[in-house]
Sequence to fold (241 residues):
Amino acid sequence: MSSLDGYLGAVVRRLQGIFGGRLVGVYPAGSLALDAYLPGRSDLDLVAVAAGPTTAEIEAVIAALDHGALPCPARGLEFVLYDRDALAGLTTEAGFALNLNTGRDMQYKAEIGSSEGPAFWYPIDRDIVRQQRRALIGPPFPGLVTRVRSRQLMPVVAESVAAHLAALGEHGDNAVLNACRSLRYHAEHTWYPKRAAAAWALDRLPSERTVIQAALDGADRDREAVEKFLAKVHAIVTSPA
Fold:
């Protein structure tokens, strides 16, 4: 058993210990769902669903999954918990019961019941989980959520690109790779791993090959070139597909 498998099993067991039979399911998200998880580079993204989680139970989850209590083998854990009933009605809202970030290379965050930050990551991650139909335990995720059509989701996707553009320099290569993923979603209405989407974008935007390849290689970035690239992608994803 790999350290990742052992960790995922431990997460599930701890959640079962807190919620018992009211734990509906636990689902891989992000790179883990898309078969693009890279040890030492990727975050570990998980979505869990429980029936009527209480404040005390949510606080117990925070303590149980904290990196100090359960060391995460990835760069960090990005864990989102939803109440089953609330999840069923969500479209592009954040809507979580808990948003927890913890890990050796991740800034700690524990938000309960609301989000003061950007909401766009949550519907994107939920749609990736819905698309991939994978579960660590529990029923298929599509049966728990409302299908959000790409036309409704595209403004959220565009917002993610705009956020990287507004915070240029804070996100490194991820800003370019996320923009490539957004660009491919705009074209195909399907989610792909960021690096796979970047490889796809090399042929679609030949004038931007230098900035895209630099992001894939982890090379030094030309800030002005990245800014122009993000602005171009934002213009494309805000136009009709």
In short: Residues 63 and 69 are 7 Å apart (CA to CA). The mean pLDDT is 93.
